[in-house]
Structures are given as structure tokens and as C-alpha cells.
Amino acid sequence: MKKLASLLLLAAPFPAASEVTYHRDIAPIVYANCAGCHRPGESAPFPLTSYAEVSRRAKTISLVVNDRYMPPWHANPETTHFLDVRRLKAEEIATIDRWIADGKPEGDPADAPSFPTFTEGWQLGEPDLVLTMGAAYEVPAEGRDIYRNFVLPLDLPEDKWIKAIELRPAARSVVHHSLYFLDQTGKARTLDGKDGKPGFNGMGFRTGSALGAYVPGATPRKLPADLALPLPKGADLILATHFHPSGKAEREQTTVGLYFADTPPSRKLESIQVPPNFGRGAGIDIPPGEKNYRIEDSFTLPVDVEAWFVSGHAHYLCETMLMTATLPDGSETILLDIPDWDLDWQDTYYFAEPVVLPAGTVLKSTITYDNSSDNPDNPTNPPVRVKWGEQSTDEMGSITLSGVALDLADATKLNLSNKANRARVFAQLGRELRDGGVLDRLPAIVKRLDANGDGLLQESELPERMREALLLRLDGNGDKTLDASEIEALREWLETLKKGRGT
Ligand code: HEC
Predict the structure, then answer these.
(1) How many domains does one find in the chain?
(2) Which residues line ligand 1 (CB under 6 A)?
(3) Domain limit, last residue, from 227, 260, 293
(4) Residue 470 domain boundaries
(5) What residues have CB less than 8 Å from 483, skipping those under 6 apart?
């Protein structure tokens, strides 16, 4: 028996002759996979840079690497190949465990690789524009997580194109993540600082367009090829930041670096959300106690698409996310498989190679939720009914695939069909308006609703039941008011509905 055990050890992928030591076997794993975040000044709560630091926490380390809690990486690397995967190999986990079983021998410091030199400062080089929050936001030592939106006025004199955004938190230990949005309406400015502190509360400022996210430890990237996102002059940058109090009061004054493209992109980056609008129209309505609530939605690509990256968004109750692509020949590719969703690690996953999906490919998202008290992430206990919404206690759910039409000539077709998909959310509203015969009586209805007689329909003047959907559908400039041209758009929409096409 003893002999068999030593034979097995010989078969294991270690230098068989000697024991596993910290300096020779463990330090390379820790330097390459942990120290990027676990070093002073970075996001993790303690450093893992020396024998003393690692051996002291060896037990916990074994636990978190075995259940794949660390390094944090939630996409299944076996189904889809991504860049910059933060994940240990099975042999590396076995090495850590054997080192612990052997009594954590230190070994000879001369065997250790040199400590990696991490790029200090901007990872992508000197930005074209650097913005810093006007004032620091105080994050208390204790208490619940905080979702706060910060407005960074850009005051650009001309339209620009963004290649990348790099975010540098001042208090890395409390900034769990930050989502970027553009606000072209000026609305965020009016909300900013109303409660006497920088920014305003809420889980995400979703009026504007999404530009990506900062996740601690993720490698910032420039958009591939000549892709770039539009940054119209007059727009403000919004950081929707999630803070997690660390036990120590901190002051956060975030700095962001923007990298611009020299020329406009030749192709438009298309973000295909399935379901669209962060799941706004997916009918999310999760009964309390429901352990396996599921939403599904699909989208058929109208043209050949080259997909570059994928990301998911949901809140605390979400458990799993899956996006598959069924090609016209019937074969299936998994584009994103998150078996264990974690709101704290909303990475953008870049495919190792762009994925080409032919016209007719069906993208399908399946997202599941656990609204029982068995879900340790459930923000409400006992559980309550949960619907779609922007608060951390509400839910959302969508997977976004970003890419371009393979053929430049197809870009408009892809864009229109993506837009039409987003507009599906309004099908129900459209049916109600049509069945109510609104078109024939539109001038009279507008006149009746326009209580203050200014010719505009303010939010408060719209029928409450339809208010939000009407604004989403028609309020192109996002000022929460329907002006003459937006009312005209309503009339045109009603005409297409009457003719029985479109939503
Ligand atoms: C991308 C950044 C990042 C990387 C890479 C990373 N960690 Fe962490 N780690 C964190 C953060 C942030 C926390 C604290 C918050 C949390 O638990 O999510 C943490 C927490 C931990 C904890 C405490 C867990 C607990 O529940 O008390 C351990 C242990 C740990 N990490 C070990 C490791 C090891 C070992 C590696 C490498 C194999 C690693 N981490 C890689 C960011 C990282």
C-alpha cells in the first residue's frame, strides 16, 4: 500500500525527487496568479507576496482555490476560450495542497523567481484625457454596500471616439467595481450632490449608453482593430460605483484616463443584448422562495458577425448565465457560461480569437435566479417578490455580445435589427395604444394630457401606466418630456402599428 502511494506521488507532475517548497513551487504560482491584486495598494484585503504571508493563510488559500473562489474568474474556461483568464490549473491547486500537507516547507530562497515588476500607474500608457472626481466621497468603515453614481463632466469641444477607459480608484480596497455610462441629457448633473455628498445613489445610471466597466484586477484593454465608441461633445461620463465597506473608513476620489482614437472607426461596434434593455421587457417577476427561476430570450443574427467580447449583467439573485450560439448548420457554440454568477466580478470577457457567427445564427441567453433564503447573496431575508428594477434589491438580467458585421456593407442591417430587437420591449405598449384607437384621436389626446398647455408632454402629464415605456420608446433626447418632434414620432409609430407592422 505504501509503495502504491509513493508510486502515485511519482506520477504526479512535480519534481518527484524532492518535496514541494514555497520558494521553488508555490511562489511562482502566487506571483503569477495572486500578487497582482494581493499586494500593498491593490484591491485585495491582504498581501500574498512572501513566505510568511502565504504560509500564515495557507488553510484559507487552499479552501478558496479549491472551490475556485480565487482567483476570481466566473466564466467557464472549458467551454469558451478567453484572454487573460485568471484561473489556476488543476496541477497548481494540487501543488498548493501538497505543500500544505507536507507542512509548508519554505525551501531555499535562491529557488524563488524574482518578484514580478507590475506596471505602476497607467497600464495602457499616458491617457489622452485624465479626469478626477471633483471631491472625495466618504465610504464609512461599516455598513451596507453602497451604489453611487459620480458625474465627471467632459466638456469636450468636439466629438471624440473612445478606444479605452482606464480607472484608478484612490481606495482600491473598497471599490468593488464601477460601470461606465455616458449621459447626453444633463440629467446626471442635476442629480449630482443633492444629498450634500458627491454623486447620487442608485445601482446604475442607465439613461445613457454603457461603455464598459472597471473590475479590480482585470487587465484594461483598448478596443480591438480600429473600433472605438462614440463620445459626443456635451456628454458627461458617469461612474456607477459599487462600494464594499472594508472595516476602515476610506475616501474615494476616482481618476479615469480616456484613450481616444485618432480617426473614426471604419465599423460600428454593435452591442447585442439578449434579452435587450438589461432584461427590462423580459417579464422578470420572481416569487419569494423560488429557487430556480429562469428567463430565456434569443436573437437571430441577420448578417455574418464577428464577435469580440461578451459580458453579463444581473444583481444578487442571479445564479447562472449561459449564452449559446446555434449556427445555421445546427452546431452549437457556447459564448458565455457563468455557472456561479457573482455581482462583484462583472468582467468583460474577450474571446481568445474573434468568433465568426454566420447569418441565421441564433443567440440564446438563459439566466437563472434563486430567490430562496438558501441563497446567501439574497439581499432580502425572508425573501420577497422581486421584479425588474434599478435598486440592488431588484433584478436585471442580460448578456451582451459585442462585435461587428463581418462585411462592412451589412453594418446598417445589423444595426437596424439590433434596434428592432431593443424595441420589442414596446410591443405590448404598442398593442395597447393601437387597440385603444389612439392614432385617430391623437391631437385631441395630446391636448387633453397637456395640462399646462405648453405643447409638450411632461413626464407627470403622461398616463402613469404607460409613462415609463412611452418615455423609453419616444424620448430621444432623454429630457423626460415629449416635444413636438417626439409626438410626431409617436404618430408615425402608431401609423405603422395600424398598418399592422413593427412595434
Ligand atoms: C483580481 C484580483 C484578485 C486576484 C487575482 C486574487 N485575489 Fe484573492 N481576493 C481579492 C479580493 C478583492 C478579495 C476580497 C474580497 C472578496 O473576498 O471577494 C480577495 C480575497 C481573498 C481571500 C480571502 C477570502 C475569504 O473569504 O476570507 C483569500 C484567501 C484569497 N483572496 C486568496 C487568493 C489567492 C491564493 C489568489 C491566487 C491564487 C488570489 N486570491 C487571487 C482579489 C484577488
Answers:
(1) 4
(2) 33-34, 36-38, 43-45, 48, 57, 60-61, 64-65, 70-72, 86, 88, 216-217, 344
(3) 260
(4) 436-498
(5) 456
Mutation test of ligand 1: which of 70, 89, 100, 242 has the most ligand atoms closer than 8 Å to its C-beta?
Answer: 70
How large is the average pLDDT for residues 275-294? 90
How far, in Å, from the CA of 27 to the mean position of ligand 1?
A: 16
Ramachandran category for residue 430: left, alpha or beta (phi over 0 → left; psi -120 to 50 → alpha): alpha
- Residue 117 forms part of a structural domain: no
Mean pLDDT score, 137-147: 90
**DSSP calls for 305-371:** EEEEEEEEEE-SSEEEEEEEEE-TTS-EEEEEEESS--TT--PEEEEEEEEEE-TTPEEEEEEEE--
139 inside domain: yes
Of 425, 450, 466, which marks where a domain is finished?
Answer: 425
141 and 249 fall within a common domain: yes
Nearest atom (ligand 1) to Cα of 218? 1
Q: Is the pTM of this model over 0.85?
A: no
- Measured by CA distance, the residue closest to atom 15 of ligand 1 is 44
pLDDT 10s digits, 42-56:
888 899 999 999 999
Distance, CA 71 to ligand 1 centroid (Å)? 6
